[in-house]
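Q: Could you predict the 3D structure of Homoserine O-acetyltransferase?
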Amino acid sequence: MPVNIPDLLPAKSLLEEENVFVMGESRAVAQDIRPLKILVLNLMPLKIKTETHLLRVLSNTPLQVEVELLFTSSHVPKNTPQEHLISFYKTFEEIKDKHYDGFIITGAPVELLEFEKVTYWEELCRIMDWSKTNVTSTLHLCWGAQAGLYYHYGIPKYEMSAKLFGVFEHFVNDPEEPLLRGFDDTFWAPHSRYTDVRRTDIEKVDDLILLSDSVKAGPYIALSKDRSQVFVTGHPEYDKLTLGEEYHRDKARGLQTKLPENYYKNDDPSQKSIVRWRSHAHLLYSNWLNYYVYQSTPYDWG
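A: Sure. Here are the predicted structure tokens for Homoserine O-acetyltransferase:
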């Protein structure tokens, strides 16, 4: 089944070129079906790319998914055209009285700031509080996961001695959990961040279950016992080129950036990148939509 998106959203044509099944809103309204309503709070600077990344992985499911895009009104994005935001995004004030089956909070390049110093932190807290009553399940990604763990459970983040950058091996701690259904015992996932959360802090919280972690990348997937809050500290939605584009961008800026680990063939940036995480990414999002959203949400929020 398709993911339903606005007809003119740039991601639509890009995904159609990849033979990803997407459906424009004009066709979707003619179908008598109750799609899953998914809200995406996009905090990433390159919003159009992030839209494409997320829509790609959300499309790999037999469920019909209708996506709405949200941005913070307390921070004006600098890297996305205003006409794109006006055409395709809503503010929290516009959607606060609605209910959604699922909600995704993306990462953001602000992890070296204290949470309270982030310009939109107060607004984000209001949104996360709202999600507890208006959303069936919320999926937090990268910095969004750190922000969610801090807001809901007081778990701090820690600055690392060097940026965690690359694709890393992870382990399944609970193969019986539906979110991990179909996972191999070990799998790979991309990370790009300067801060982390610690396993010992997560394990102190009785309401949290640590489903997956990594020797190099630390805790990866945690969730609340009622499955309404899911925290993923990496970027499983990244496409083949994302880490490479980040590496070359930082090099062009004169930054001392290291090569992304386990990304290029033979660790040679002149060679192609090796995608090790695509199957895991699609399975993670499909399981989240099926087990934590579709099978848990009310048919009619009333």
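Q: Anything worth pointing out?
A: The chain has two domains: 3-161+169-240+281-294, 241-274.
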